[in-house]
C-alpha cells in the first residue's frame, strides 16, 4: 500500500524524524490559511499523487512551458496562484505514464535553506535477506540514472536484524555521505529512527530523496516516499486509514476485497490464472503471439466458485479487454470449481468478447464437461500454446 508524501512525513515525524512544518489541502480556499500558519517567507507547493518525478512533471492542461508539480512560492499570494493551476489538473510524470494522475490534494510546506541534497532509502535486500540502507551523495536526482551512469556513487549498508542500526552502521552511513559536525550528530539519531519506523510499521520501501543538509548544518527529511507490506496491514489499523483509494485502480480495489492478486496492464487480453508463475508464463506467451495482456490475475490455489466469479467480473469490467484467456492447472484448485465459477459469472454479466479456456489437472475432464454443457460460447484449448494462439486469433 502506497501513501502520500505528507502522510509519510507524519509517520516518520511520529518516530522522531526531522521534517518541515506543512499542511495538506484539498481546495484553493484552504491554501491561504495553510500558508499563513507556516513560518515562511518561502513556501513549497507540492502535488500529492502516488508517483515520483513530480517536480519534473507537466500538467496536461497547462502546456509544455508551465511549471511542474512541485513549486516554490515567495508569498502567500503566489502559493494561492500555484494552487489554482495545480488542483484538479492532470500531472504527467515519468512514473504515471501518458495518462497522468489528477491532483486532488496539495501539501503546503515551509521552505528550507539547502546546502546539500542526499539520497537515502531502506528496502529489503533480497540477496542478503535483510533490510539495507541504499545511500548516495547524488540526492534529488533520478537514482536509476545515477545507478546506470555512476554506480560507484551508490553504497549499500546491510543491517543485522539482531542488533538493528549500530554505531558502526551509522558511522558507515555518515562516511558514505561525508557528513561531519551537526549533520553527523543528527545522523546518529536519524538513521536508527528510519530503521525503527521501517520495521515497526512493516514498510516495503522507504525513500527519502532528498535528505538534505541545511545551511545551519542539520539534517532534514525533505521528501519521503513510503509503501507498506499489504499482507501485514492487519497489524496496523492506523496505517490502513491512510489509504487513498482515489489513487488506485478501481478494479484492483475490488480485487483486494476478494484477496485476488490483480494488477491492471495496458493490453487487451484478460487473463485469469491460478499461480503467479503460470500467470507470468501466460502473459509471456500472449506477447509471443503478438498481443498484450490486459491484466495479471492470480485467483490462488484454493479459490472457491464465488472468488472465481468475482475475478471474471473484474476482468470483464475493463473496457480495454477484447478477449479472455482462462488458464488453469488444477492441483489444490479443482478444474470443475473454476468451470462452475466461470459459467456463473458469464450467466450473470454476459459474454461480449471471445473466451478461451484451458483446463488441466484435478477434475479437468469434469470441468470441460461443465463448460461444454453450459450452452455458452466458450472455446476449449488443449494446452497453453493452443490456448494462446486461439485467443490471439479470436481478438484479431
UniProtKB/TrEMBL annotation:
<feature type="binding site">
    <location>
        <position position="209"/>
    </location>
    <ligand>
        <name>Mg(2+)</name>
    </ligand>
</feature>
<keyword id="KW-0436">Ligase</keyword>
<dbReference type="Pfam" id="PF00549">
    <property type="entry name" value="Ligase_CoA"/>
</dbReference>
<feature type="binding site">
    <location>
        <position position="112"/>
    </location>
    <ligand>
        <name>ATP</name>
    </ligand>
</feature>
<feature type="binding site">
    <location>
        <position position="46"/>
    </location>
    <ligand>
        <name>ATP</name>
    </ligand>
</feature>
<feature type="binding site">
    <location>
        <position position="109"/>
    </location>
    <ligand>
        <name>ATP</name>
    </ligand>
</feature>
<feature type="binding site">
    <location>
        <position position="223"/>
    </location>
    <ligand>
        <name>Mg(2+)</name>
    </ligand>
</feature>
<dbReference type="GO" id="GO:0004776">
    <property type="term" value="F:succinate-CoA ligase (GDP-forming) activity"/>
</dbReference>
<dbReference type="InterPro" id="IPR016102">
    <property type="entry name" value="Succinyl-CoA_synth-like"/>
</dbReference>
<dbReference type="InterPro" id="IPR013815">
    <property type="entry name" value="ATP_grasp_subdomain_1"/>
</dbReference>
<dbReference type="GO" id="GO:0004775">
    <property type="term" value="F:succinate-CoA ligase (ADP-forming) activity"/>
</dbReference>
<dbReference type="GO" id="GO:0006104">
    <property type="term" value="P:succinyl-CoA metabolic process"/>
</dbReference>
<comment type="subunit">
    <text>Heterotetramer of two alpha and two beta subunits.</text>
</comment>
<dbReference type="GO" id="GO:0000287">
    <property type="term" value="F:magnesium ion binding"/>
</dbReference>
<feature type="binding site">
    <location>
        <begin position="53"/>
        <end position="55"/>
    </location>
    <ligand>
        <name>ATP</name>
    </ligand>
</feature>
<comment type="pathway">
    <text>One-carbon metabolism; formaldehyde assimilation via serine pathway.</text>
</comment>
<dbReference type="InterPro" id="IPR005809">
    <property type="entry name" value="Succ_CoA_ligase-like_bsu"/>
</dbReference>
<keyword id="KW-0547">Nucleotide-binding</keyword>
<feature type="binding site">
    <location>
        <position position="274"/>
    </location>
    <ligand>
        <name>substrate</name>
    </ligand>
</feature>
<keyword id="KW-0460">Magnesium</keyword>
<comment type="function">
    <text>Succinyl-CoA synthetase functions in the citric acid cycle (TCA), coupling the hydrolysis of succinyl-CoA to the synthesis of either ATP or GTP and thus represents the only step of substrate-level phosphorylation in the TCA. The beta subunit provides nucleotide specificity of the enzyme and binds the substrate succinate, while the binding sites for coenzyme A and phosphate are found in the alpha subunit.</text>
</comment>
<feature type="binding site">
    <location>
        <begin position="331"/>
        <end position="333"/>
    </location>
    <ligand>
        <name>substrate</name>
    </ligand>
</feature>
<dbReference type="InterPro" id="IPR011761">
    <property type="entry name" value="ATP-grasp"/>
</dbReference>
<feature type="binding site">
    <location>
        <position position="117"/>
    </location>
    <ligand>
        <name>ATP</name>
    </ligand>
</feature>
<keyword id="KW-0067">ATP-binding</keyword>
<dbReference type="GO" id="GO:0005829">
    <property type="term" value="C:cytosol"/>
</dbReference>
<dbReference type="InterPro" id="IPR017866">
    <property type="entry name" value="Succ-CoA_synthase_bsu_CS"/>
</dbReference>
<keyword id="KW-0479">Metal-binding</keyword>
<feature type="domain" description="ATP-grasp">
    <location>
        <begin position="9"/>
        <end position="237"/>
    </location>
</feature>
<comment type="similarity">
    <text>Belongs to the succinate/malate CoA ligase beta subunit family.</text>
</comment>
<keyword id="KW-0816">Tricarboxylic acid cycle</keyword>
<dbReference type="GO" id="GO:0005524">
    <property type="term" value="F:ATP binding"/>
</dbReference>
<dbReference type="Pfam" id="PF08442">
    <property type="entry name" value="ATP-grasp_2"/>
</dbReference>
<protein>
    <recommendedName>
        <fullName>Succinate--CoA ligase [ADP-forming] subunit beta</fullName>
        <ecNumber>6.2.1.5</ecNumber>
    </recommendedName>
</protein>
<dbReference type="InterPro" id="IPR013650">
    <property type="entry name" value="ATP-grasp_succ-CoA_synth-type"/>
</dbReference>
<comment type="pathway">
    <text>Carbohydrate metabolism; tricarboxylic acid cycle; succinate from succinyl-CoA (ligase route): step 1/1.</text>
</comment>
<dbReference type="InterPro" id="IPR005811">
    <property type="entry name" value="SUCC_ACL_C"/>
</dbReference>
<dbReference type="GO" id="GO:0050074">
    <property type="term" value="F:malate-CoA ligase activity"/>
</dbReference>
<dbReference type="GO" id="GO:0042709">
    <property type="term" value="C:succinate-CoA ligase complex"/>
</dbReference>
<dbReference type="GO" id="GO:0006099">
    <property type="term" value="P:tricarboxylic acid cycle"/>
</dbReference>
Amino acid at each position: 500500500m502506497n501513501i502520500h508524501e505528507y502522510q509519510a512525513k507524519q509517520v516518520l515525524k511520529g518516530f522522531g524524524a526531522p521534517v518541515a512544518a506543512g499542511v495538506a489541502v484539498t481546495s484553493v480556499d484552504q491554501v491561504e490559511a495553510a500558508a499563513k500558519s507556516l513560518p515562511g517567507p518561502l513556501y513549497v507547493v507540492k502535488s500529492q499523487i502516488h508517483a515520483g518525478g513530480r517536480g519534473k512533471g507537466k500538467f496536461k492542461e497547462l502546456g509544455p512551458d508551465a511549471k511542474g508539480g512541485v513549486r516554490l512560492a515567495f508569498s502567500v499570494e503566489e502559493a494561492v496562484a500555484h494552487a489554482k493551476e495545480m488542483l484538479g489538473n492532470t500531472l504527467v510524470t515519468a512514473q504515471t505514464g501518458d495518462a497522468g494522475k489528477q491532483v486532488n490534494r496539495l501539501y503546503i510546506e515551509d521552505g528550507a535553506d539547502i546546502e546539500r541534497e542526499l539520497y537515502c532509502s531502506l528496502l529489503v535486500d533480497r540477496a542478503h535477506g535483510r533490510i539495507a540502507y541504499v545511500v548516495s551523495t547524488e540526492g534529488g536526482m533520478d537514482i536509476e540514472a545515477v545507478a546506470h551512469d555512476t554506480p560507484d556513487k551508490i553504497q549499500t549498508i546491510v543491517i543485522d536484524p539482531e542488533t538493528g542500526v549500530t554505531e558502526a552502521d551509522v558511522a558507515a552511513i555518515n562516511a558514505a555521505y561525508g557528513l561531519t559536525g551537526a549533520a553527523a550528530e543528527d545522523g546518529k539519531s536519524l538513521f536508527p529512527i528510519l530503521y525503527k519506523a521501517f520495521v515497526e510499521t512493516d514498510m516495503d520501501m522507504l525513500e527519502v530523496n532528498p535528505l538534505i543538509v541545511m545551511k545551519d548544518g542539520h539534517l532534514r527529511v525533505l521528501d519521503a516516499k513510503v509503501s507498506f507490506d499489504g499482507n501485514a496491514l492487519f497489524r496496523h489499523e492506523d496505517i490502513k486509514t491512510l489509504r487513498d483509494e482515489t489513487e488506485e485502480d478501481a478494479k484492483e480495489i475490488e480485487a483486494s476485497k476478494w484477496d485476488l492478486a490483480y494488477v491492471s496492464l495496458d493490453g487487451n487480453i484478460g487473463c485469469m490464472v491460478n499461480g503467479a508463475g503460470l500467470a507470468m508464463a501466460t502473459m509471456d506467451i500472449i506477447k509471443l503471439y503478438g498481443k498484450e495482456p490486459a491484466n495479471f490475475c492470480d485467483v490462488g490455489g484454493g479459490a472457491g466458485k464465488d472468488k472465481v466469479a468475482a475475478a471474471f467480473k473484474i476482468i470483464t469490467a475493463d473496457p480495454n479487454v477484447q478477449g479472455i484467456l482462462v488458464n488453469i492447472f488444477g492441483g489444490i484448485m479443482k478444474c470443475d470449481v473454476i468451470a462452475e465459477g466461470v459459467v456463473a459469472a458469464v450467466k450473470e454479466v454476459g459474454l461480449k468478447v471471445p473466451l478461451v479456456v484451458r483446463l488441466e489437472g484435478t477434475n479437468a475432464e469434469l470441468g470441460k464437461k461443465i463448460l461444454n454443457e453450459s450452452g455458452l460460447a466458450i472455446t476449449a484449448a488443449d494446452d497453453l500454446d493452443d490456448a494462446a494462439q486461439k485467443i490471439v486469433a479470436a481478438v484479431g
